[in-house]
Specification:
Elements lengths: L3 H20 L24 H40 L1 H22 L5 E5 L3 H4 L6 H13 L2 E7 L2 E7 L8 H4 L4 E10 L6 H11 L9 E3 L5 E13 L4 E15 L4 E10 L9
Amino acid sequence: MFSKNLFLKLSIVVAITGLAFASTLPGVMADTALLPTLRATVSGGGGGTGGAATLSAAATTASAASTKVAATAAAVATKAAGVKATLTPFATTGSEAATQAITSYASSVLGINVTVKKAGGLTGDVTKTITQMPSGATAQSAVTKLAVITYGAILSNGGASLSYGKGTVTGDVTIDVQGSSLGVYSLVVSNTGTLDANSALTLAKTTFPGVAGYTFTPQTVTKGFAWYAKGTDQGYDLKTKKVTVLAEAVILYVLPGAGGKATVTATVGRGDFAAAVKP
């Protein structure tokens, strides 16, 4: 049979072990210094009263520590919930930044205004709204891997993707999209009569007046009509920090549809990304 002294020693060891384990829980390490220190003296004699009092004190201390651990765990959970709540608005911020970039590029480079229904990353839902020829898709894929930022958007009458920034961006999208960038805008527009090569090119230039001034060379496609052009345009160069002349390459693609509709797509590479747009 265990002696009272041995039983009391075992009880104290259990209490101390419990406190040591509790101190390793998440969020408790910072509060370890605040935990009470166990101090108990085991009487050398067999007096039941002293042993019972010491055991009672140990039990009380262990209970207090357990309560503190539970309170600390609750505080950690509350803090985690607060962090989650703080992160939520960033989804909205990303959408707003994507919308601003898509609309700014459309205005400054393509010479049009677009209405964004949904904007964010370049998702499958976005790519379904973009119609382009193989060389345009190849350019888009290559630049997406190089650009600092890539956005996608579902527009009221089509879809768009925009990749920009090589190495750095200013954070001002109205400036950043003028430099190294690649935009692919695919719009469903109305047309009258049957489209041929000439009327289709006129429709494309009317749809994207910002790039209409180039001399376009016809390209061979299995469906619709396509043209390629390259030249220069003014834009803000992040390297020199000045407005300068930047290389620009353009693919226009027109795919006639039913009911007097046609899909018109412009793929425009600027600055360092102009070379990715090839005939």
